[in-house]
Batch of 3 targets.
Target 1
Amino acid sequence: MAAISLEARIDDLVQRDRRYTAEAYQYVLDALDYVLQHPSCRSTVSRHITVTELLEGLRRLGLEQFGPLARCVFESWGVYSTGDFGEIVFKLIENDLLNQGDHDKKEDFQNGFDFREAFEEGYRPVLRARGND
């Protein structure tokens, strides 16, 4: 029997639960790799990534890849909050695409950070006052 590709497994998951796009699932997997490759995101040397570490990686990778459009990109994928990222993570766990740590809970993703604040605040242009040109 031939192995089923990651893309095919994600596509199957999306067909069964249409809340999020395949890009959203792939992005979460990419963010996990990002956290593993960037020691500044990690508080431990353990291979297991905490919810806090993953949320920081999701935020930082989003800003790096999409800049001020990150929130719009995520919303186009059906992701409106950190709780949605938690839903995606646990769908990946349920479908044997990720492993769950002993203390991992979906609720830990709720209210991780505010999307507007995390993805827009740093990109607002500063307007110069008239007459100071």
Target 2
Amino acid sequence: MCSSIGRRSASGRPALEDCALHVISTVVSRPAADRVIFDAGSKTLTNDGARGFTATPGHGLVFPSLAAEQPDASIIIERLSEEHATARVPDTCALVPGDRVRILPNHSCVVTNLMDEVFLVDGNSVVDTLPIAARGRIW
């Protein structure tokens, strides 16, 4: 989830470093040179499109490793099933099954509603785990 208070990028959106919620996902398949399948689908990333001052393609920004500081704009999550995401990638993309990535979802409500807990991290270290009190409590 991105804070609506604080630094803003030139477009007026919160800066990437102010976005606190990311999904960790694993590459589960590379069925073609231009496609990657992640183990995070609509139940995790939501079908909501990105909203803002410009149209942003895809269902989230993909950081190509857990340590990456910037998303890779060439990786576009084009389709979601409930449990998987299909991303279009350039032929030069180095992702292979087993690689882990961070995804900044377009909308965080689904992520927190359908997860039992979140991990608080500092860099690459997990510093705490919090239960999601609102888990499954929508009416």
Target 3
Amino acid sequence: MNWTIIANYLADNWLEIAGTVTTVLGIWLTTRRLLVCWPVVLAADLIYLDVFYRTQLFSDALLQLFFVAFTLYGWWHWWRGVREEGEVRVVPLTLRGWLAGLAAGALGSVLLGWLMARIGAALPHLDATLTSYSLVASWWQARKHIANWWLWIAVDLVYIGEYLYKGLRPTALLYAGLVGLALLGLRDWRRATTTTQIAV
């Protein structure tokens, strides 16, 4: 094993690796419904803002700015719920909520894709679609809807291919792990929902 090659790789990609580690930790804490997830996720948002800007994935860079806003909102919304109820409670999503979210994601995909194509972004339409639906998933997550995990699974699977194509191997590996964490989150939030229903 050539330690010089490894050291050079770590030196060249330290920011992306830091974002990967921070993101995994933040999502894992989210699956556990722990309030501390939000400052960790905020740090990951800011790191990946820089990573995506450097690789000209402008929709993803823009997404990180929205993630910062959703992270701050989610942090406040969860904190308020913990203060009032003593725990983070999972909230069901209505059919109307599903349809509105998916429609908003589609509209955002078209508008953002058009904009990104005009400014010369890499993979403008694909990246815009993933960005748009990531915003929907983030909103659902901040609102404590279990449906967020289903949408994250779908989006993250497509992101893996995009990042491999762009040569962001640590990030592609991260998103493969995020699919696993989303499955874990789905399982744990379902259990929390069942426990709450039994308690009521």
